[in-house]
Amino acid sequence: MGIHKIKGFAARAGAVALLSIGMIAGIAGAPAMAQTRTAPVTISYTVMGDSYSAGSGGGGEGYCGQSANGYGTWVAAAMGTQVTNIACAGFSTEQVRTLEVPQLSPSTTLITLTAGGNDIGWTTAIGACLAPTSTVALCKAAVANSIYLMRNLPKSVASMLKAIKAKAPGAKVLYVGYPRLFEPQNMAALGFTPTQISGTKVLNAAADLLNGILAVSALSNRTAFVPVAYLFNGHGVPSASPWLNNIGDSVYPFHPNLAGYQNGYAAALSPFLRTFR
């Protein structure tokens, strides 16, 4: 698949993502119906999914790449509750369904999750496009493979969400997206090759496509999708104020750092949590 075709896919997905985000904004911003609350709401909060929900890259990672600096900590603090983190680095949507859902408490009232990046060989694509020996052909092939694998996401996301809702039927589920990872305009000054810079542009476009597919898949299953990419704009790799780890910054490069989890992910989730406050 040629670069122009990949960018074409991303452009169409961008339109879908914008529509989806508009729908999300409408849902999140709609006024609640008047109601009388007779008792405080008890919040039982669980974080599920892959490394971006585990908090990998936030520092002090332990089992499954979990970090106390992940976004779940900041969300829980804002709501005055505790978080149960069962997310695991490297997990696909299928592994979330089969390995994390059994750990989920049926009494959970709020669930946030990220999942989908590991389904499409995203780490492999990043490596292929950023390697010092990368070529345009190698990068194109790796990204094209990730795009090809995206065709399975609607079905796998639906199965995962169905299992989550069956296990915790009273929970509000928020499906959270991924950031664009790179700031290509800053890379030449740091010695990146034209091939690498071109590759990061393609990776950013593919990330838009991934978010668009995840947004539509979530909304099709009556689950709110929370976009984060807009907040990370200007804070990718490399930037003067990075919210993502670069190679050498962490054993989890291209994952949010503490600032990314707090100012990016937790901030993006905040408007969706108003019903719990």
Brief synopsis:
With 277 residues, the protein is α/β, with parallel strands linked by helices. The chain is built from 10 helices and 5 strands, in the order H-E-H-H-E-H-E-H-H-H-E-H-E-H-H.
Descriptive account of the structure:
By secondary structure, this protein is an alpha/beta fold. Helices cover about 45% and strands about 10% of the residues. It is built from 10 helices and 5 strands. It has helices at about 5-30, 50-55, 70-80, 95-100, 120-130, 135-150, 155-165, 195-220, 230, 260-270; strands at about 45-50, 85, 110-115, 170-175, 225. A 5-stranded parallel β-sheet has the order 2-1-3-4-5, with helices on both faces. Helix 8 links the parallel strand 4 and strand 5. It is globular. The N and C termini lie far apart (about 50 Å).
Distance from N terminus to C terminus (CA atoms, Å) equals 48 Å
Report the helical percentage.
40-55%
Strand order of the largest sheet: 2-1-3-4-5
Count of beta strands: 5
Give a short account of the largest sheet: 5 strands, parallel
SS-based structural class? alpha/beta
Number of helices: 10
How big is the Rg? Answer: 18 Å
What fraction strand? Answer: 5-15%
- The average pLDDT score comes to 89
Shape: globular
The string of secondary-structure elements, in order, is HEHHEHEHHHEHEHH
Low-confidence stretches: 13-39
